[in-house]
Design goal:
- The chain has 521 residues and is mainly α.
- It has 18 helices and four strands.
- The longest helix has 35 residues.
- The protein starts with a helix and ends in a 5-residue tail after the last helix.
Length: 521
């Protein structure tokens, strides 16, 4: 037996030396190859290799890099031409492949049960069903893939947390990791937008505002979807900041430095202060990016999202209503005394023109009403599609291929979507699809509000920020479509974060139930 062990150890040592030599030789060859490449290609190769290796170790790294790179998809399509997959999509697919591969390697494929599994599956099923008679299956398949990715990313986030450790302490820390990567991704785009608005000094002529500034658009190439994306980060950062500040205040008052929860996470004062400073800076910069986008839809979405957060900030509804009334009075007073610039108030009040319905056939077109009439013409086309295909629409993602059959004479060219996502869904998936979509977002709002009533700070602050983000998306979809340029990947991670909060809510409920059980003596 001892001879066998000695021989086994000797062979393992020899094999280890062989593999070490192979790795060293491979590193030398790669170094020589990199030395012959142009600098940009060399940096990309080294960086890509590092990201791939770190993703193999921890898929969360791949998800973080995906969130950073994903918003660059629109710019990539302009620089190198349209492509089936951009860098963000490739990184996401690699990350998901690593996640599934790890599960296969350990003979464990775990699909977490979440509150949104059934609503998501229902909407995807109806959307897929609508493609049976669609004019273009490729358009529909691309749109369907987005929702499959949203679902996969949500499950990935939950799985990485649950199987990282069953201990609530670690899961709570993991939530802050996910929160941080979401905010960092949004912050990178906010910095680009602020630079475009006030520091670059030039830009597309039609983005010029106030005579000297250029609307912020980041790497989205369009201000409106960029601003919608910025709203997600701004409102989430505001909620997280409020939660951390409330926690800091409670801990200073009580003298205990730990996060409330079923299994408290110990956070030192420097950690709390650092997180508070980071979330506060992110909230300010992302809010500025929304303002600098000069997008009326995003401004309204930000305002309504913020109002809903004020309403649900206190646990007692009457207190929230009081705060909301005070905030409304302060804004009204600011407008009356001129604190709020007239250019901003005029921009906001003109938003009502974008939401009015009407028949635009025969209406005189000029520079002043062109944008509004164009949107109304596409709304009319969407309604006509829905009338002829009432139950399942013209096919998910098929608004553009079907548009030619419903276009008004003066508006022959499609915009890609109806610029009202609810009409777009109605046109593409019919009444059944619109109902399924409504069920999905009703479930999201219900889950978030339930968490707000049962979670403690600072996790309650994350839920508050998510509620503001969901509200902003809901309002912005009245005039635009935000499932573009990989924004849906960001939304998938946010839905995953929502499910992690649900685990904490259940843990708190279980603890409270045990505490209320009578003690048998």
């Amino acid at each position: 037996m001892n001879v066998f062990n000695a021989e086994f150890l000797r062979r393992r040592e020899v094999n280890g030396r062989v593999w070490t030599g192979f790795v060293v030789l491979l590193a030398i060859l790669c170094g020589l190859l990199i030395a012959r490449l142009p600098l940009l290609w060399a940096v990309g190769l080294v960086g890509g290799t590092a990201v791939a290796l770190l993703t193999l170790i921890n898929p969360l790294v791949g998800l973080f890099v995906t969130l950073l790179v994903a918003p660059w998809g629109a710019l990539e399509n302009i620089v190198r031409g349209p492509a089936a997959l951009d860098s963000g999509q490739l990184l996401l697919l690699f990350t998901l492949a690593v996640w599934l591969g790890r599960g296969l390697a350990y003979r464990r494929i775990f699909l977490p049960r979440t509150f949104l599994n059934v609503p998501l599956a229902l909407f995807i099923f109806v959307a897929a069903l609508s493609l049976l008679n669609a004019p273009s299956f490729s358009y529909g398949f691309r749109e369907l893939i987005k929702w499959l990715q949203i679902t996969a990313v949500m499950l990935l986030v939950v799985d990485l947390s649950v199987n990282r450790s069953p201990i609530t302490d670690h899961r709570s820390r993991f939530m802050f990791y996910v929160l941080t990567i979401l905010l960092l991704a949004g912050l990178s785009q906010a910095i680009i937008g602020i630079w475009q608005f006030g520091l670059r000094g030039d830009g597309p002529e039609h983005f010029l505002v106030l005579g000297r500034f250029y609307r912020a658009y980041g790497t989205f190439e369009q201000p409106n979807p960029y601003a919608g994306y910025m709203n997600l980060t701004a409102l989430l950062a505001v909620g997280a900041f409020l939660g951390l500040i409330a926690t800091l205040w409670q801990q200073v008052a009580s003298g205990r430095w730990q996060v409330a929860g079923a299994h408290p996470v110990t956070l030192s004062p420097p950690h709390l202060l650092t997180l508070s400073l980071f979330t506060g800076i992110t909230a300010v910069l992302c809010t500025l990016a929304v303002l600098f986008s000069w997008s009326r839809g995003a401004w309204l979405s930000l305002a309504v999202g913020g109002a809903v957060m004020v309403l649900f900030w206190p646990k007692k509804l009457w207190q929230g209503v009081t705060l909301l009334l005070l905030a409304g009075l302060l804004f009204w007073g600011g407008v009356r005394i001129g604190v709020v610039p007239a250019s901003i108030t005029e921009r906001i009040t003109s938003f009502s023109e974008d939401l009015r319905f009407g028949d635009v056939r025969g209406v005189d077109i000029n520079d002043a009403n062109y944008a509004v009439l164009e949107r109304l013409a596409h709304w009319q086309a969407a309604l006509d599609m829905a009338r002829e295909h009432i139950w399942l629409g013209v096919g998910f993602g098929n608004y553009e291929p079907a548009y030619a059959d419903y276009a008004l004479i003066n508006w022959p060219y499609p915009l890609g979507h109806a610029h009202n996502y609810y009409l777009n869904i109605l046109a593409e998936t019919g009444v059944l699809g619109l109902l399924a979509y409504g069920v999905l977002w009703t479930a999201v709002f219900f889950q978030t509000i339930r968490q707000l009533r049962q979670l403690d700070w600072p996790l309650r602050g994350i839920a508050l920020g998510l509620l503001g983000a969901w509200t902003a998306v809901t309002v912005h979809h009245l005039v635009d479509k935000l499932y573009v340029n990989n924004v849906y990947i960001h939304l998938g991670v946010m839905l995953g974060l929502l499910q992690l909060l649900e685990y904490e809510r259940r843990a708190n409920s279980t603890k409270e139930g045990l505490n209320r059980m009578p003690v048998i003596r």
